[in-house]
Amino acid sequence: MTTKLFGEPVRRREDPRLLTGRGRYLDDLGRDALAAAFVRSPHAHAVIRDIDVSAALDVDGLVAIYTWEDLPDRLAEPLPLLIPHPALTHGRTAYPLARDRVRHVGEPVVMVVARDRYVAEDACALIRVDYELLKPVVGVEEAAQSAQLVHDDVPGNVGAHMVQEVPSAGGLDVREVIEDAPHTLAFRLDIERSASTPLEGRGVYARWDADDSSLRVYSSTQTSTSVRMAVAAKLGLPLPKVEVIAPDVGGGFGVKIVHPWPEEVLLPWAAMLLDREVKWTEDRREHFVSSAHERAQVQFVRVGFDDDGRVLGLEVSILHDHGAYTPYGIIVPIITSTQLPGPYKIGSYRVEFSSVYTNTVQVTPYRGAGRPQAVFCMERTMDRIADHLGLDRTAVRAVNFIQPEEFPYDQGLIFQDGRPLIYDSGDYPESLRMLKELIGWDSFPAEKERAAAEGRRIGIGIGCYVEGTGVGPYEGGHVQVTSDGRVHVSTGLTSQGQGHETAFAQIAAAELGVPLERVSVVTGDTRRFGYAVGTFASRAAVMSGNAIALACRKVREKALRIAADALEADPRDLEITDGMVHVAGTPGAAIPLATVAVLSNPLRYAFDEEAARATQFAGASSFDKPPVPEGDEPGLEGRDYYSPIRSTFASGMHAAIVETDPLTAEIRILRYAVVHDCGNLINPMIVEGQIHGGVAQGVGGALYERMVYDGHGQLLNASFMDFLMPYATEVPHVETAHLQTPSPLNPLGIKGAGEAGVIPVSAVIASAVEDAEGIAIDKMPISPSELFDLRRAAS
Amino acid sequence: MKPPPFDYHAPRSVAEALDVLAAEGERAKVLAGGQSLIPLLNMRLAAPGHLVDINRLTELAGVEAEPDGVRIGALARHAEVERSEPAAAAQPLLRQALRLVAHPVVRNRGTVVGSLVHADPAAELPAVLTLLGGSVRLARRGGPGTPAAGVSVSPEVPAGGSLTVRDVPAGDFFTGPLESAAGPGELAVSAFFPALPPRSGTAFREVARRHGDYALAGVAALVVLDDDLRITSAAVACVSAGPVPLLVEVTGECGHRPPASAGWAGAARAVQDRAEPEDDIHATAGYRRHLVGVLAERALRDAAREALNG
Amino acid sequence: MAERTHDITLVVNGTVRRAAVPGRRLLSDCLRHDLGLTGTHVGCEHGVCGCCTVLLDGEPVRSCLTFAVTVDGHEITTVEGLADGERMSPVQRAFAECHGLQCGFCTPGFLCTVTAMLRDNPVPTEEEVLEGISGNLCRCTGYQNIVKAVHRAAEIMAEES
């Protein structure tokens, strides 16, 4: 290879398009499509008595109005429960349009199709829905105690209850261990709701081709293949007659992995029914009240530990707020409960969660997906142990770390993929050493003293995490070299800004020995690749990256075989450099990959001069075998899949220095440091970008963002005015250092990086504010007003 | 989130605008910068039958700094006033406050008079107008009145029609949250911010959740010194401390003393006592009251420093 | 009853464009749907996110908080008009060089805002950069590389001037 591509900060190939306005996001498509809008419930909990659409019928430009009663067959059933689990005894999902009951503000009740969105909203405003109000259930503790039920057939509002326990090495159960421990602490922690809030909301654009009886659906989704299967199933269409494409997607962060959204089945249905193109573009208010939230948990912790701070027993009980429905199963609380031990050897561990229904927007994964809560719990626990024993907070962590020689390390739990939770690799002591050096941990006490002398309050905080990334079951890659020498790569999972077109091209170019410019990558288009799972859980690089590498290796092997034939050489002596197959060390004996591609496809008809070389009178190499030998296929292409035995485990440690204003209680992050280990880096620039963005979302979750529901189940801050996503002025500069412990589980030795940045931030900021203030911080996010109240209560 | 339909009017003159406003009365809304009104329309929280777009009335675009104060026409954008050196020289509090209004891009479009008429008690400019004792000029069709003399940003008197112009002092202009004295049929044509008196200083301090957000609490301060550099007058106006901008005169608390020994803390307590903040999702009333005191002291000290330096 | 429309003329990226729009048509929708310039994005429609920022007579404004009919006769520059033919502008190149974008949805708003900022202030301080982009939300980048890109764009502009 002339250029090293894997591991280089190659500039993104997506950018020229996106920087010049030539990106194509969902709402940029279908200029002539009809527009859909929805009447959504203004009430958190109500029975629908009647829907009167008569006043809307006169609206100029109205095309159609649909309610649940109009829905046929399988569309009239509840949407699928995507991830069933034995502990989810009472899973419930919504109807595409509310049937007779609404369970949260924002639930869709009526779909209107009109000439444009303005007109559709005019019609919506004229539709009268008669509701009989029911008492709403708001707040996870109220839900757990209330006699009022969100779903009449879910007693106690408990959708799922799950326990996992890892006894001590001596076989004692956790409670016994804690009883007998030299030190014991018990406390409660709270973490509030936030949400993905990508700047592009969801959206669906459906085109029905009546001549071909086929459907093409564009969706701003994190999983086009799964949307395709759901649409085909719900509409009763043969799978080959449905294609789903994720165009440029303006951020996902988890919310767009859920599918099918009501709109993803309703829009295609309406397009078929009306034989017109129909498009729905979610607006910001809709996104707040009718997509999904995450994070809200109440955690009860008991921990027993020795004089060094070694955790002997940890018992955590979690109340998880699941909102009104569980379309994505109980993945979020499972992740919280299994990722909670982090980088530590917990002597014995028992975790129990109840997933509870409330009359609020449903809860599905948001970047981090249960891990920020887990890390908040574990790291607050570590800080409390340090505080109790008068030890340095990093010393307590260090004494509990899994050591580098102990990998693979089995935590004894069952992870979110249904497989044993076994860490593949890592070096936590080194990570901590790097972090302490980066932030200046050991010199901070002196710094703090100097600040105090100036009347300033500063504090330092730390948070460590381990993140299961690259979960299965599989992804695939297809690589085709065409006779012009171009390399076309496709994979089924989608992209929402992670730079897959660049990173996957780097992998393919490096594997095949071709210039990067010759490689093009398509993601999320079922016309190109039909089998995939989706982009979530920091899995795209691990899963599709490795699948593409494996597919490239197949292509390479075939290319060398064909070239060896043509060059009359031994394939083992050949290599590919800059798109030329040549004999190693023998200049001149070479054949372009383009020609190999020509030769790979025996032709009867020549479509150009180059192709003529592969036609039947051009001179076959052997008349002893058929043109396409047995077991071979025409074309220089390959397809392969990567399906790992289990997840990889990335890790990281963050530290922050904060300043709190002694009078106004404003909280400012002065420094933020990250040590990050995601194994081998494909493109360090992209990985750093993922960390920066993750930290910024974490800062939002720690200091600014929350979903504020009142007692009536009204979301009081359903706008960017009041849901305080941070601007540039609120986000600190992030200092990063990388540690690379390759994963032994996959060919490229990589782990995922997408979610990492966000995971420990609330824990870190809580730790730092606590250090600055000397007041226990056990509820996040924290606002200046809340810090002020804590100060009052403490004084 | 698309606005509901309305009849759109694009008058070419103030007279034409007043005619539409007179004809449509309460059904009409005036559109200037639109930075507060259009979000409300997009969310369908407002649905005026008629929108009177005054963006073509270039005669209302002026910013005129005179020795006695700054008169700002209804079409003058925040950014324009913020950049105006004569305006800053005549009344520095304008620039100090405008830098805290939303974000630069919003200030490129939003108008000073528009934000006064919007009368949000969390907004900076109503507090500034209140503190300085400024006024808003309202014009409407009918009645016997004529424009006050000697004012350059004023509607022309159209032929064949009578016009009433009234100057409403800030103290009477803000009548409640999002409510002002501008009635149906009236157009706010300009606002007047009195000039900074000699030996005086101003400051604006606020705490917002994010930079550019509406303040959790904010305080504008004006301190005037005498020839001996003792305080002769001190006052603050607070945002987010009640239904309208809260003006608190604190000359007595400060004492007729040099700033170095003034009773700032007592003044701050007096402001706190008068504040009537409310709880909302971002902060408790108690915290806001505390902030008002902290910010009042900081703003008064800053203003006094300005007065000494000036 | 059909809604009344107004005939307007805009000079968009140097080209005279005409459209018939209802009074309530937002400039963002007019650009995107009436004129087919979909590079301007819509992220909140209440003026907070800044995705829809375009240049109106050279000054950055929220196109979602502007009615198309209000700016009849004015000049608009959108992200499609920032490059010089096939050559990206210094601001666009700096964003690519510094990895100042991920999903790219907020990017057109940032590019318009920064283009005007650097025209008025070719060598901004760190604080001025933060203030200048403080009205634009980005959910992907954490802003760090955007800030870096603004400084880099200033450098490129200085080198090329």
TrEMBL record, chain A:
Residues 618-637 are annotated as: Disordered. InterPro entries: Ald_Oxase/Xan_DH_a/b, Ald_Oxase/Xan_DH_a/b_sf, Ald_Oxase/xanthine_DH-like, AldOxase/xan_DH_MoCoBD1, AldOxase/xan_DH_MoCoBD2, AldOxase/xan_DH_Mopterin-bd_sf. SUPFAM superfamilies: CO dehydrogenase molybdoprotein N-domain-like, Molybdenum cofactor-binding domain. The keyword Transferase does not apply. GO terms for molecular function: iron ion binding; oxidoreductase activity. Keywords: Molybdenum, Oxidoreductase. Residues 20-135 form the Aldehyde oxidase/xanthine dehydrogenase a/b hammerhead domain. NCBIfam families: CODH_aero_grp5. This is Dehydrogenase/oxidase. It comes from Planobispora takensis.
UniProtKB/TrEMBL annotation, chain B:
This is Carbon monoxide dehydrogenase. Keywords: FAD, Flavoprotein, Oxidoreductase. The keyword Flavoprotein applies. InterPro entries: CO_DH_flav_C, CO_DH_flav_C_dom_sf, Diverse_Substr_Oxidored, FAD-bd_PCMH, FAD-bd_PCMH-like_sf, FAD-bd_PCMH_sub1, FAD-bd_PCMH_sub2, Mopterin_DH_FAD-bd. SUPFAM superfamilies: CO dehydrogenase flavoprotein C-terminal domain-like (SSF55447), FAD-binding/transporter-associated domain-like (SSF56176). The keyword Repeat does not apply. GO terms for molecular function: FAD binding; oxidoreductase activity.
From TrEMBL, chain C:
One of its GO terms (molecular function) is oxidoreductase activity. Pfam families: Fer2, Fer2_2. Gene3D superfamilies: 3.10.20.30, [2Fe-2S]-binding domain (1.10.150.120). Pathway: Alkaloid degradation; nicotine degradation. InterPro entries: 2Fe-2S-bd, 2Fe-2S-bd_dom_sf, 2Fe-2S_ferredoxin-like_sf, 2Fe-2S_ferredoxin-type, Beta-grasp_dom_sf, Diverse_Oxidoreductases. Transmembrane segments: none annotated. It comes from the Bacteria. Residues 6-82 form the 2Fe-2S ferredoxin-type domain. Keywords: 2Fe-2S, Iron, Iron-sulfur, Metal-binding, Oxidoreductase. PANTHER family: OXIDOREDUCTASE WITH IRON-SULFUR SUBUNIT. This is (2Fe-2S)-binding protein.
